[in-house]
Design a protein that fits this description.
35% helix; 165 residues; mainly alpha; single chain; 7% strand
Length: 165
């Protein structure tokens, strides 16, 4: 008596294990590249946010120097805080008393990921502020905003701490 064995189409257990092993190896190679790409995107966003706020601070200073923003004689001409850039100030040279606005909103720090300021609603509190009379090595905020920096303690891909960007 002859037995005929029909083979059904499909994968054996060994074929499935080899396939899973190959997929796992490919995933382990791709993961660091994905993390690096995400890190680069966050760094690019940080650069853009810092540039946007620094331009707004410079525009405020220029408007103050031109006499469009009222300031006291001993003031530096820089904004007292970041919120003023969003709320705007009255244009001293405008006959209609229009408001000068320098930012639509205060950008968030992409490097914090909400870790340092959970529960805080204002994104202005996510940034370190440096006053005009503050030394660059030890930035501090007193009466005006001369510069902004990230409060993140991490270091960038280029080896420079985000707080020094």
């Amino acid at each position: 008596m002859v037995y005929i064995v029909k083979r059904t189409a499909g994968f054996t257990l060994i074929e499935l294990m080899v396939s899973l092993a190959i997929i796992a190896i490919m995933a382990s190679v791709a993961t660091p590249m994905i993390q690096l790409t995400v890190q680069r995107q966050k760094e690019q966003q940080l650069r853009e946010h810092l540039r946007e706020m620094r331009r707004a601070i410079d525009a405020y200073k220029k408007a103050a120097d031109e006499g469009r923003v009222k300031k006291s004689a001993d003031a530096s001409g820089y904004p007292p805080n970041l919120q003023v850039l969003v709320d705007g100030v009255e244009d001293a040279k405008s006959p209609k008393h229009e408001r000068l606005r320098f930012l639509r909103r205060i950008p968030t720090d992409p490097m914090l990921n909400g870790q340092a300021n959970k529960g805080l609603t204002q994104s202005a509190s996510q940034w370190g502020l440096r006053s005009y009379d503050s030394p660059p090595e030890q930035p501090r905020y007193s009466q005006d905003v001369y510069d902004v920096y990230s409060l993140s303690t991490q270091t960038g891909i280029n080896g420079v701490a985000y707080a020094q960007w």
